[in-house]
Amino acid sequence: MIIKTVELENFKSHLNTRVDFETGISIIMGDNGAGKSSILESISFALFKEYASKKMDKLINNDKNQMQVTVLFIANGRTYKVVRKRKRNSSPESMLYVKDNGRFLVIEKGDAAVSEEI
What we know:
Blueprint: E1 2-11, E2 14-20, H1 36-48, E3 66-75, E4 78-87, E5 93-100, E6 103-109, H2 111-117
Antiparallel strand pairs: 1-2, 1-3, 3-4, 4-5, 5-6
């Protein structure tokens, strides 16, 4: 699996962050508390629904009501996009897409189905 892009919206300290990964080794640098670990946690959340917080609502920025993480990745020669959303005190929403002829097509919906497919 090759991660190409991570987009964070209201995920912990990241209100609107996009990280593009180039071919090769990537290094995430920054001051303490800048959100480096949150970027890694967002990838783990998007791909595997794993996170360090005890409650999923703790992933949502304190001043916001919902968050979203989008990860674009390549696996087995195909390009995929996973989107996981969460509103406070509600069930998460998850979608998995595959790129086909330049367009992203939904291949799985729902939290458990997306997790199983990935």
